[in-house]
Amino acid sequence: MAVYALTGFSLVSLLSFGYLSWDWMKPGLVADVATDPMEKSLPPTFTRPPHIIFILTDDQGYHDIGYHGSDIQTPTLDRLAAEGVKLENYYIQPICTPSRSQLITGRYQIHTGLQHSIIRPRQPNCLPLDQVTLPQKLQEAGYSTHMVGKWHLGFYKKECLPTRRGFDTFLGSLTGNVDYYTYDNCDGPGVCGYDLHEGEDVAWDQSGKYSTFLYAQRVSKILASHSPKEPIFIYVAFQAVHTPLQSPKEYIYRYRSMGNVARRKYAAMVTCMDEAVKNITWALKKYGYYDNSVIVFSTDNGGQTFSGGSNWPLRGRKGTYWEGGVRGIGFVHSPLIKRKRRTSWALVHITDWYPTLVSLARGNLSNVQGLDGYNVWPAISEGKESPRTEILHNIDPLYNHAKYGSLEDGFGIWNTAVQASIRVGEWKLLTGDPGYSDWIPPQTLTNFPGSWWNLERLTDGLRKSVWLFNITADPYERYDLSEQRPDVVRTLLMRLVHYNRTAIPVRYPAENPRAHPDFNGGAWGPWASEDDGEEREGGREPLKSRNKKKKKCKICKLRSFFRKLNTRLMSNRI
């Protein structure tokens, strides 16, 4: 009876029962681990540039790590974070491509033209070629650079590939979503292709290997073949835990008591990824890198709640500008940190890794103009104040304009129908349509989806286009202060106007039929020549897949289902 009763809960019920009264500073969840005074002694001196391992996970929710009180087992991540510095005021972007582009360039997406949506497989688009990337700067500093995992920054020209953008080696996928075993990716009915690449070649021989394991094994192989006396940068962009929800059976069995099937599979994938990180850490120690290494862990966006993820107790989900979409899991683990075993509340954004890591590498930033990131290493290592005081979450002029927004609502200086969000100090402003807006508890009960549909309907009928929150005092975005503090609203709108003046035109070209995998032997890959313009289109008869027969993409139907479900959800957003 208790299980069925939950489906009738409303948001008010959740509040009254204390589900949204989770203490942000509650010990055991995000508070400091007990610290030995000796842990604050100075670390070994930087005698040479440190080895840098940057681990990025895909669609992992804010709640989905052990030290945030999750029911998912992540012992490795918990230990690494506890022994390092947890970043509890850390921000990312709400979807894949924007986070990755800002990590690689150190610039807001309004300054790269990627402020709208993601780069889709058939678009003649990629990370602008005039941008000097993070791995290129590290190469200049003498680093060996390697990428393993998901690229998702465009590939229509060979010049866009990871190996042309600063990485010495690459093993991974170019698109945003592939099968974990077959590496098939379908971008619509009948538009399917293989997507696993070794360097600039298709890695047909790796099919059948679970990607999380494959990527961890590749990192170990790289470390085994390199000398720890020479600096190395490895960017590990796990496919996990993005859909499709696939995991080895032995990991799913651990969560057999979870009634929600999606949550069960998702939890298994998170734990599997945790063990992959354990193997990478072990390899760092085995091959002599660990004592002079910096491990950065970051998620790329909020969790997708209808695919098993949870951002509880934050509001919203992946694809939104609520905290559940943009506040990330982040920590740094390194013997070189001066003040270990603590939680940092310094404001940090994903753009900050570019100048931070280049500075650690003793690279040259003097010739890089227009960075939006800051060097936050003193804040992380020594506990100093962050140089960052504000974050432009984004300005997206192409996103569907809010029905009730207007220039009048924006004091005549900003059209509040435009989707935008900014954080200045303790204040956060959202305009336009910020996305699905409710608080969704972890889906651990069999019939829980019914209850979060009820939650969603509570937002129907709200006619707003401006929200203001004091994020420091109200991290769950419960209390909109836009009407009480119009002075703050106006100040933040002026900041949006300022940033918008610096924005470059959006790069979001139409899809090109030449991108079809059938024109590339059955695999996703570059299709345009160096001289091709973005608008040029052409066609040829499809080629037969080389080395194998054309395969049916097993995830097409699943992707179609999620697109329809997402459309249904989006139609009910405020």
From TrEMBL:
Family matches, as Gene3D superfamilies: 3.30.1120.10, Alkaline Phosphatase, subunit A
One Pfam family for this entry, by name?
Answer: Sulfatase
Boundaries of each Sulfatase N-terminal domain copy? 50-361
Q: At the top level of its lineage, which domain of life is listed?
A: Eukaryota
Gene Ontology molecular function terms on file:
metal ion binding; sulfuric ester hydrolase activity
- InterPro entries the UniProt entry points to: Alkaline_phosphatase_core_sf (IPR017850), ARSB (IPR047115), Sulfatase_CS (IPR024607), Sulfatase_N (IPR000917)
Ranges for the region named Disordered are 511-551
Report the cofactors: Ca(2+)
From which residue to which does the signal peptide run? Answer: none
Q: Which UniProt keywords apply?
A: Calcium, Glycoprotein, Hydrolase, Metal-binding
Q: Which family does it belong to?
A: Belongs to the sulfatase family.
Protein name (Swiss-Prot/TrEMBL)? ARSI Arylsulfatase
Instruction: Tell me what organism the protein belongs to.
Output: Dicrurus megarhynchus
Q: Which gene encodes it?
A: Arsi
